[in-house]
Write a structure and sequence with these properties.
The chain contains nine helices and eight strands. By secondary structure, the chain is α/β, with parallel strands linked by helices. The protein has a single domain, classed as Metal-dependent hydrolases (TIM Barrel, Alpha-Beta Barrel), CATH 3.20.20.140. Strands 1-2-3-4-5-6-7-8 form an eight-stranded parallel beta sheet. Helix 3 packs parallel to helix 4. The longest helix has 18 residues. It is globular and about 50 Å long. The chain binds zinc ion. The site of zinc ion has 5 residues, from loops.
Length: about 260
Amino acid sequence: MSIFDSHCHLYWNADDNSIESQIEAAENAGVSRFVCVGTNADTSMKSLNIAKQYSQVVASVGIHPNDVPDIAELSNDLQQISDLAKQHAWHAIGETGLDFFHKRGEPLAQEQSFLHHLDLAKELSLPVIIHCREAATELVTLLEKRNEPVCGVMHCFSEGPEFVQRLLDIGLHFSFAGNITYPKSDLIRESASLIPADKLLIETDAPFLAPQPMRGKKNQSAYIVHTLDVVASSRNVTANDIRRQIFDNSIKLFNL
Ligand SMILES: [Zn+2]
């Protein structure tokens, strides 16, 4: 059994659960591959160090939209990310994107940072991991204005069907997280039913967004099986029917 957790933050769980025990629990649940995602220079390096220790893990480098500094300091931080990106072996750029829900990171700085990450990903031929919260219209508009295909993934996709086709036209993949299992998430389940099979990924975003049966707990990669089940049922198939395809999509996207 092979499941690929395309987005987790193993370093934020490490106080309660050692990296080793998280990976072991995940492997017992059938999860054999992980992308450990950076949110700033520090957590990107933590991800890289985990990837050096565990061959099942690959790492990404980037600045989360809520971690972007004020415009005045932005170019310094972006230069640092570019330097890191060129110095080490990464498998993705991100997470980057737009987040207007949390009141951290001014919108203009987030936009500039996002565009920088897109350029960097293109330059290094790496997929980009895109975060989007309460900013879908702005984000899609920005990508459409840029007017070139983007290799990457909309992580924790939480939008309704109205954005699916526009993001497909840009070339993006879609990764679904634990929030697709919540009772009120009909629109996310509808979106999941519309994604072409070769564009579909799953993730935990651990330690956030534990799936329904585990809700209230700190999320971990082992819990991804509940997300897989709901993605499958949204598409009227079984988890067995789509697990391999989702795994292969991830292997291909992250150049493994
Ligand atoms: Zn994340």
